[in-house]
Specification:
The complex is a heterodimer of chains A (about 300) and B (about 250). Chain A has about 300 residues and is mostly helical. Chain A has 12 helices and 3 strands, in the order H-H-H-H-H-H-H-H-H-H-H-H-E-E-E. The model of chain B has no long low-confidence stretch (mean pLDDT about 90). Classes of the chains: A mainly alpha (about 300), B alpha/beta (about 250). The interface between A and B is medium-sized, with 29 and 32 residues. Bound molecules: adenosine-5'-triphosphate (ATP) and magnesium ion. The site of magnesium ion has 4 residues of chain B, from helix 1.
């Protein structure tokens, strides 16, 4: 017990834990849709683009969240312009715009030679350095995202699964997409200082991917992803306290570790626990060999021997 | 029910069809046949409001479908268009058809769950209700999407190749099921590649090849001339009692 309580004696650890939990929930939620839509690169790109905005904001003393937000929007607009040029696909356009924006941020920092604590936090994350203002802003965004997702849960599922049919059955896919983009951008921007540009994409993708490995049921995946996000975040803070390692990195590493364990478990489950063996038997009149597969989710399945 | 006036659709520089006119009456059961790439899917997507035409109008129940998709349409997409690895169960997919009747809360009500179970039961796939959609057979998957359309209580049902890739018996079952629905007053439009087992049994046929080649009863449109215009190939037509059999008659010469 002592082991769990000691870190809580420090106010900055308690604050960090509250923030980490909220960010874990936030990333757990948006990660589901990011992973299922196959748009992981967006999280990576948006965070890098926002970094350029944050540095410019710092130079001109503009509020960090506003600067990063406006810059993120400008980048999205620019990406759209490039994609309209037809010859360039979206992934390339995102790569160019967001990395250029990131490079601009780095170039500006190296020129002014004042690599402040604040900017370092945006790059690598600094959970234990959050201010009360940060906690309030992150709290508001988390609450807002939860409320929006609550009321759009059905629509988001339909649009993510089958956008054309969603339109036919009365869900405006373009509107839902726009709202989701807004949520995604807001979540990334408030997470920047906590998790860091370089780690945020992983923080978004890992809980949802782990949940995806564990179930084929959307509702279960939804709650699993949030739970994994929140638990790894809090556990990551404890680990970083005792290992004396950077908190954002520790959270991501812990998430990756759990992902690997689930992956290996799935593999073993399929290979050993469920009697996979070759046997010959008759289908109709033709005798032939199969490997034999049987698990809860796939039912009874015969796979041809390679 | 559906009125198409001077409709032109394109993908970029590819004009799929130009200035089409077509009317489908309330209560009909019409099949669209035509070669691959001839624009059948594009045509029904224009009816659904998913593809925006560059010219012309589509009216469903007298109202233009511009901007607002028409209410009460059940749509069963081509199965190839579905992402089978997506983590949803049969119940979750079918429930999507009830979304616009469910109110603002994220969970389904007793009534909705009952409707979903009834539809699955009618189609004989209730035992798969909690299964992942990927684990079902092609015929069963087809019926999941049919169930999703049914629970939305549609006046008009649009199906893109509902009998592709299933065996003769399942084809017959699906067709029989559609005929029963049609008798209850639901207007049905379907696309099919199967002239013998499906199209020949429908009351009304539209032959399509980047435009409407002909329309009418199977007896009237399934003749070598019209089929040649539709498929750009020689098709032999054999009539035997109430049966019409069609086969490609172009010889292989290579
Ligand atoms: N999303 C798209 N983007 C660009 N071109 C498309 C798109 N969908 C279809 N096309 C083109 O439009 C034409 C008509 O396609 P459509 O899918 O309507 O044909 P179809 O009659 O349904 O064919 P099939 O029987 O193979 O399903 C084809 O030339 C196709 O290549
Ligand atoms: Mg098609």
């Amino acid at each position: 017990m002592e082991f769990l309580i000691t870190p809580l004696k420090y106010e900055f650890v308690v604050n960090g834990m509250i923030v980490a939990m909220m960010i874990g929930i936030l990333c757990g939620i948006i990660g589901i849709y990011v992973v299922l839509r196959g748009m992981s690169y967006i999280g990576h790109g948006l965070s890098h683009a926002a970094f350029g905005g944050a540095v410019i904001g710092y130079i001109f003393s503009i509020n960090l969240y506003i600067a990063a937000g406006v810059w993120g929007l400008l980048s999205a607009f620019l990406i759209n312009l490039i994609v309209r040029e037809k010859k360039i696909k979206a992934d390339a356009a995102i790569g160019i715009v967001t990395t250029a924006s990131f490079a601009l941020g780095i170039a500006l920092i190296s020129r002014i030679r004042r690599f402040t604590k604040n900017l370092e936090a945006i790059l690598f994350g600094n959970i234990l350095g959050v201010t009360t203002e940060d906690i309030i802003i992150i709290g508001i965004v988390t609450l807002l995202v939860i409320i929006i997702i609550f009321f759009l849960y059905k629509q988001l599922l339909f649009v993510t699964f089958d956008p054309e049919s969603a339109n036919v059955y009365g869900t405006r896919a373009s509107l839902i997409d726009a709202i989701f983009s807004f949520i995604l951008a807001a979540s990334i921007i408030v997470s920047l200082q906590v998790i860091g540009v370089t780690l945020i994409a992983a923080a978004i993708i890992i809980p949802a991917s782990t949940a995806r490995l564990l179930t084929n049921n959307f509702n279960k995946m939804f709650f699993l992803s949030i739970a994994i996000g929140a638990i790894t975040s809090v556990a990551g803070i404890y680990a970083s306290f005792y290992l004396n390692a950077a908190s954002g990195a520790t959270i991501v590493l812990l998430g990756a570790l759990i992902f690997s364990i689930v992956l290996i478990y799935n593999y073993i489950h399929r290979k050993i626990m469920l009697h996979e063996h070759a046997h010959s038997h008759l289908h109709g009149a033709i005798p032939h060999h199969h490997t034999h597969l049987d698990d809860a989710e796939h039912g009874h399945e015969h796979k041809e021997k390679p | 029910m559906i009125e198409i006036k001077n409709l032109t659709c394109n993908y970029g520089n590819n004009i799929v069809f130009n200035g089409i006119n077509l009317a489908i009456k309330k209560g009909s059961l019409a099949g669209i046949v035509g070669p691959s790439g001839s624009g059948k899917t594009t045509l029904i997507k224009a009816i659904l409001g998913v593809v925006r035409p560059i010219a012309g109008e589509v009216y469903v129940n007298g109202k233009t479908i511009k901007n607002n998709p028409p209410p009460n349409i059940g749509y069963i997409p081509q199965l190839e268009a579905i992402e089978w690895d997506f983590p949803v169960t049969v119940e979750q997919v079918v429930m999507m058809g009830r979304h616009n009747k469910m109110g603002i809360l994220p969970w389904s009500g007793k009534e909705d769950r009952k409707k979903v179970q009834e539809a699955l039961d009618r189609l004989g796939i209730l035992q798969y209700i909690n299964h992942h959609i990927k684990t079902l057979s092609g015929g069963e998957q087809q019926r999941v999407f049919l169930a999703r359309a049914l629970v939305s209580e549609p006046e008009l049902l649009i199906l893109d190749e509902p009998t592709s890739g299933v065996d003769l018996k399942t084809q017959h079952d699906i067709l029989h099921f559609l005929l029963t629905l049609n008798k209850k007053g639901i207007t049905i439009v379907l696309i099919t590649h199967d002239l013998n087992a499906v199209a020949a049994h429908l009351p009304w046929i539209v032959c399509f090849n980047r435009g409407i080649v002909a329309e009418g009863k199977p007896d009237d449109v399934f003749n070598p001339e019209i089929l040649k215009k539709t498929y750009n190939a020689d098709v032999a037509v054999i009539r035997k009692g109430h049966l019409i059999l069609m086969a490609n008659a172009t010889p292989f010469n290579d």
